[in-house]
Amino acid sequence: MKEKRKMADHAHRDRWLVSYADFITLLFAFFVVLYASSQTDQKKQTQIAHSIEQAFQVLGLFPSSIPSMQHSGALADSQDPVAPVNVILGDDLSASPQVQHDLRALQTKLTGLLSNQVAGHVVALRLGRDGLTISLREAGFYDSGSAVPHASSQATLGKIAAALEAEPYDLRIEGHTDNVPIHTAQFASNWELSTARATEMAKILIVEHGFAPGRISAAGYAQYHPVADNDTAEGRGENRRVDIIVLPRISVLPGKKTQP
């Protein structure tokens, strides 16, 4: 009798092993799920990396900026084929060493081509956060109150257009004025004048020089984005300008132009 009671007590005390075994099994299954999820994410990362690399190769940009997937550690294990994708390079590319190199080289080239205009303070070049800005001041390109560049500026505009045509980057054209009010039969305010100058410059690049319209945007800012003090005649002269900004962005592949 005592022997049977001893065996029953022993079996009762060992029941915790059943719960413990169930817990270990569930814990094992949980970590298996986590591992499988991490493998799936890695596969997606591999596909994204392959897509970006192939897109850069298609565009002919930054051939050495992204390491080959053959030498990228765990990512190299994936053999899944990835189709090429079309990519629009955003403004965040402004920090790319390749883009910075391109824009600095373009600035140097234009400085040489426009050395007389730069020395005469009718053209200014500056490289900033938005890209390379080519400032065409009113004194060298426009009659007062007119949106059409005068004939003597056509040669300079031709040099600028030829240099920009060879680049793949987008252009933003901005019209700016000083703070002196204008009210003529053609323009009721500086808003109209600045916008007309920007759109006219865009039309010149598209119609006369064959630029793809998708590369170009235009805007007028009136007197609200000055680069100098409007309290002096010299400052107002600097503020009356049209800026052609070479953006660190590509939305149209190089070589695709419209026909005038």
Key structural traits:
60s Ribosomal Protein L30, Chain: A, alpha+beta, 5-stranded mixed beta sheet, single chain, 8 helices, 2 domains, 5 strands, 260 residues, disordered C terminus
Written account of the structure:
The protein has 260 residues and is an alpha+beta fold. It folds into 2 domains: 2-77; 91-246, 2-Layer Sandwich (60s Ribosomal Protein L30, Chain: A), CATH 3.30.1330.60. The protein has helices at 2-13, 16-59, 97-113, 115-119, 138-141, 154-165, 190-208, 233-239, and strands at 123-128, 131-137, 171-176, 216-220, 241-246. It has a 5-stranded mixed sheet. Helix 3 runs antiparallel to helix 6 (154-165). The longest helix has 44 residues, at 16-59. The radius of gyration is 32 Å and the shape is elongated. The model is unreliable at 58-95 and 254-260 (pLDDT under 50).
Task: Describe the structure concisely.
By secondary structure, this protein is of the alpha+beta class. 46% of the residues lie in helices and 12% in strands. A hairpin with a 2-residue loop joins β1 and β2.
Low-confidence spans: pLDDT under 50, at least 5 residues?
58-95, 254-260
Radius of gyration: 32 Å
Main β-sheet, spatial strand arrangement: 1-2-5-3-4
Structural class: alpha+beta
Query: Can you tell me the overall shape?
Result: elongated
Alpha-carbon distance between the two ends:
111 Å
> Which CATH class of the largest domain applies here?
Alpha Beta
Number of helical stretches of at least 4 residues:
8
Topology-level CATH name of the largest domain: 60s Ribosomal Protein L30, Chain: A
Strand content: 5-15%
